[in-house]
Amino acid sequence: MLTDESPLSTVYEPTGQDPVVYLKRYYGYDRFRPMQEAIIRSIVSGRDTVVLMPTGGGKSVCFQIPALMMPGLCVVVSPLIALMKDQVEALHLNGIAAAYINSSQGVKEMRDVEANCVSGKIKLLYVSPEKLLSESFYVFLNRMKISMFAIDEAHCISSWGHDFRPEYTQLNTLRKWFPNVPIIALTATADRLTRQDISDRLDMRDPAVFIASFNRTNLSLQVLPGTNRIGQITKLISLKPNTSGIIYCLSRKSCETLATKLMEKGYSAAFYHAGMESSERARIQEAFLRDDVKIMCATIAFGMGIDKSNVRWVMHYNMPKNIEGYYQEIGRAGRDGLPSQTVLFYSFADVATYTQMLTENKPANLELQLAKLERMKQYAEANTCRRQILLSYFSEQLPEPCGNCDVCRSPRITFDATTVAQKALSAIIRLGERVPMNVLIDVLRGSRNYSIVSQGFDKIKTYGAGADLKFEEWRSYLHQLINIGVIEVAYENHYALRKGLLADDVLFNGKTISLVRPDDVPKPVVEKATRTRTESNRDELFERLRTLRKRIADAQNVPPYVVFTDSTLEDMARQRPTTPDAFRNVSGVGERKLEMFGTAFLTEIADYVGVQVGESQRQVRSEAPSRPREAAKPKGSTQQMTLELYQQGMTIQQIAQARELGPSSIANHLIQLSQGGYDVELESLITPAERREIEAAIAIVGIEENRTKPVFDHLEGRYDYGKINITIALMKH
Ligand code: ADP
Ligand code: ZN
């Protein structure tokens, strides 16, 4: 794995006390997001700190940077053992010395980690709450200086919350054991009860509480009618090829059916629910994290703690039970801050199902749950800015409509529908409040359906009174009338429609009703199809970088978004750096990643924009203070590592394997080293026959604007870019 590249081999150098220096060096970002710096300063000053920030808000750096700034070990409590490895690997790729201890490890591995903590080599240690509170662990922690405790997913401590974990309630022991060590608690839960519960239960002393805005402006909000959902879904995802997304379904069965249908249509999809073997669940989750499966059809069992940052869209096949759940689920899209799409399919049938379930099961907080369901329904039916509704639910004001929800994009036009409502009510009454919606519509439209005629429904006075409206129009209006309380659904009586609370007012007291025409009810938006040339070039380069990222991630055995986020790749495709210094300017490129992946990405970009690797390297060298031959060995640099293996007599293939890099990257290292005056014999890296064939191909297709792709294509992929670049380097020589 990351052995020789593990940050343990780098000496940990404090960078002074300016947090932004750490942000740039380890994470490659230039600026803090709102509140991050204040949070960091609070914890560094030794104060207990509570952080409420939405998913994707950037909580990690809030405790990781203090961990780097403060002397001693930061202990991170995290409930999800399965994710610790990923979290720690992501830190390693940022050049931060971190480790985890949990039950999945052998004794030897655990001892090694402990020794590294005691000797001060590790800055962050991830543990589960059970492990942390064991007596042996207390003894171990007492052998060293602890800088702080970070409690991740801190809402798990509250029995008010939606994800209560009994182990978490013991965490107040930390205060007793380590009265002087500051505690930072972080969560993406916004509700007020949980908030207070967290600081109480951790015995915090006068904590600084930071509540970030829960407005995730990069998430678009859209509610679509829950009809022909498969058709709508395939249309939506066909507009977003190659992107990762989640579709939440209510039942296990519908996860499976939906995934199967999508697979039949050729999409890369899978399903995930609590009824599956845990090993199978882990396998599917991993495939999704690694971009091997693009579309996940899942129940809400999926997603907790998953920090995959390149989920580009989230859809709800069914309406969620409450706004908390909904907000958390859509929050899994766009953690990297790039625009991401969310779609909720709304059908009144879902409300009916939940209501029936709740009234049958009679939970203790039935009233509360029904009220929450009602708020969710109001959101789904809203004719005003949806984001304003969401944020007001979380006690936050958004003064202006957001402009990034379906209502803002196509404002609704209402009309006076009082007679429509009266016709419907009159038919309902004459039918004895006994028939469901479809039958009512048939009666209103004067259908000659056998079941209508055989029951004598064609004899009632309102039969055919609504023949001027289409079936779909009636359905839309009846739904709206149900939603505003003019009509009610008798769930206990086969979903028969009956008079609602407002019915008499409409019939007898002159109450007017306005409804929205079905044309104004949102349909899937077709994204703009025209793209400028620059945009499509950028997309093309982005795709190449994405492919390269996947290759590197597989070689490193980490998820692609851990190598670089989508937003970093986008910035790269925009800036097109061809020198390491320019590469450093890309948002999300820290020192460690520059060192590890710089060459590979620079080569890809250089190849795309038609700059020869040699040229870009000469540029780099002219900026270097001294000539390479005299220069001290670039310690730890990726070229240096390649050189050392080359000097041991290894072939490109062997070096590539040993370093878990692509052969072309190794070849490019060797070309750069040779051009930099190091003793690398390019001739020996390629056989005369190979060279002849590549030269022949170059003779035919030429090197168009210094691009080598045509040569590569002409050779039908028989030779990698490494060999092609070596041949070109030799030709120039
Ligand atoms: P959370 O834990 O709050 O859900 P993360 O800590 O995973 O969020 O951060 C979400 C994303 O935002 C990550 O890709 C992270 O690298 C990025 N990020 C964090 N802070 C900044 C910043 N100051 N500038 C740019 N990106 C940032
Ligand atoms: Zn809006």
From TrEMBL:
Domain called Helicase C-terminal: residue spans: 232-379
Pfam families: DEAD (PF00270), Helicase_C (PF00271), HRDC (PF00570), HTH_40 (PF14493), RecQ_Zn_bind (PF16124), RQC (PF09382)
Entry-linked InterPro entries: DEAD/DEAH_box_helicase_dom (IPR011545), DNA_helicase_ATP-dep_RecQ (IPR004589), DNA_helicase_ATP-dep_RecQ_bac (IPR006293), Helicase_ATP-bd (IPR014001), Helicase_C-like (IPR001650), Helicase_HTH (IPR029491), HRDC-like_sf (IPR010997), HRDC_dom (IPR002121)
Signal peptide as annotated in the record: none
Ranges for region Disordered: 617-639
EC class: isomerase
GO molecular function, one term: DNA helicase activity
EC number assigned by the record: 5.6.2.4
Biased composition (Basic and acidic residues): 618-633
HRDC domain mapped to chain residues: 535-615
Cofactor(s) this protein cannot do without: Mg(2+); Zn(2+)
Regions annotated as coiled coil: 531-558
Protein origin, superkingdom: Bacteria
SMART domains: DEXDc, HELICc, HRDC, RQC
Family: Belongs to the helicase family. RecQ subfamily.
Cross-referenced NCBIfam families: recQ (TIGR01389), recQ_fam (TIGR00614)
Protein name, UniProt field: DNA helicase RecQ
Organism: Fibrella forsythiae
